[in-house]
Write a structure and sequence with these properties.
This protein is α/β, with parallel strands linked by helices. Helix content is about 35%, strand content about 20%.
Length: about 375
């Protein structure tokens, strides 16, 4: 029986996807699998028993990926499971920025005791007038699961949409509306668009990409939206742009005191994926990934190991090996099975950066001595057996 431990509350609709071969444990020391949302794991000692970590969400900044890889722990996230929830909030943010809805709400609240409110509103509403988004240019930087939904929805609302992603996948390209202009230079978005929304992962290469030099290229009164990760936007640059009215609005889902103090910032308390549907979808997807990995050794949506899928084992035994991506590893594995007279029926070998992953289906069962022999090969991080 497998055991799983939850570091955060995980939607019950997801946990119900575990069958009778799984039991929840309150002690991480006994866990084969860990489910997490936002809990900080960098300072944790992760027990050797843990084989897999499922992040019920997309971002994995709270998980020590290097440490996990060295311990032979597969880490999964759930890309796309919360995409619709984020998309809807991006559209709401764009509408809030285009028309002074928030200012109007505050004004009505302040005048709520005024018996002449209805008549006064007709006189004062011009103070909160704004613009329609139809016909305006929207630049979407990053065409992953969320970016594509935003781009397609905005195009359907009559916006002229520019999409930028130098690494767009084939599936993403197929799902992108023909009304979205796929451009190859992000500077075209900076120069041309009335609204700019960013949907890229946070990496060293993307940190602070909305910089003072990027803002300098943008139209006056541009609206910038960040529902991806706070550090993608250079904080000093955006504060200065707001202070000098260089930009019209900055809409972000990542609050801090500096941004929240600015007049033309719309700061939301990280609500992008905070819908019941998103939390359910993420939990379901995380549990499905964990089960397929523990039961079949298959990897989909790992953030530290390569994708690898051999379906369900139809032979006597399946062995999976996480190893360092160094020469001759596969030769050593096959030789070890050959020396024991065990035939390899099927094999899949994939690599990703410093690490490799092998799934091997055997014609008959290997004993514990052979498994220990493979585990002792230099560069092997974890060996698992499934029957």
């Amino acid at each position: 029986m497998y055991q799983y431990h939850c570091l955060n509350p995980i939607a019950e609709v997801g946990l119900k996807r575990f069958d009778g071969n799984y039991a929840k444990t309150d002690n991480i020391e006994n866990a084969d699998a860990v489910l997490v949302r936002s809990a900080a794991m960098h300072d944790m000692e992760i027990p050797e028993s843990v084989c897999v970590i499922g992040r019920a969400g997309a971002g994995v900044n709270n998980i020590p990926l290097g440490k996990c890889s060295e311990q032979g722990i597969a880490v999964f996230n759930t890309p796309g499971a919360n995409a619709n929830g984020v998309k809807e909030l991006v559209l709401a943010g764009m509408l809030l920025a285009s028309r002074d809805i928030i200012g109007g709400l505050h004004w009505v609240r302040s005048e709520r005791q005024n018996e002449e409110l209805e008549q006064l509103a007709e006189k004062q509403k011009k103070l909160f007038a704004g613009n329609e988004i139809m016909g305006k240019k929207l630049g979407v930087i990053g065409l992953g699961a969320i970016g594509i939904l935003v781009a397609n929805a905005a195009a359907a609302l009559g916006m002229e949409v520019y999409g930028y992603d130098p690494y767009i996948s084939v599936n993403a390209a197929w799902n992108l509306s023909r009304d979205v202009r796929h451009i190859t230079d992000v500077n075209d978005i900076y120069r041309e668009c009335d609204y700019i929304t960013i949907h890229v992962p946070l990496m060293e290469s993307t940190k602070g990409m909305i910089s003072s030099s990027a803002i300098a290229q943008m139209k006056n009164r541009v609206v910038i939206m960040n529902f991806a990760r706070g550090p993608l936007v250079d904080q000093k640059a955006i504060v200065e742009a707001l202070r000098t009215n260089r930009i019209r609005k900055y809409v972000t889902d990542f609050p801090n005191s500096d941004i929240a103090s600015m007049k033309n910032a719309i700061v939301i308390p990280h609500l992008g994926a905070s819908t019941e549907e998103s939390e359910d979808n993420c939990a379901i997807m995380a549990v499905q990934e964990i089960r397929d990995y523990l039961e079949n050794g298959n990897i989909h949506n790992s953030v530290n190991l390569p994708n690898c899928d051999m379906g369900v084992c139809k032979f006597a035994m399946r062995v999976t090996i996480i190893h360092k991506n160094i020469p001759n590893m596969l030769t050593k594995f096959t030789a070890a099975f050959g020396d024991m007279g065990i035939n390899i029926e099927r094999l899949s070998n994939e690599t990703r950066g410093e690490y490799g992953y092998v799934i091997i289906d055997l014609s008959n069962e290997a004993d514990e001595n052979l498994i220990r022999t493979i585990q002792r090969i230099k560069g092997v991080l974890k060996v698992r057996v499934m029957k």
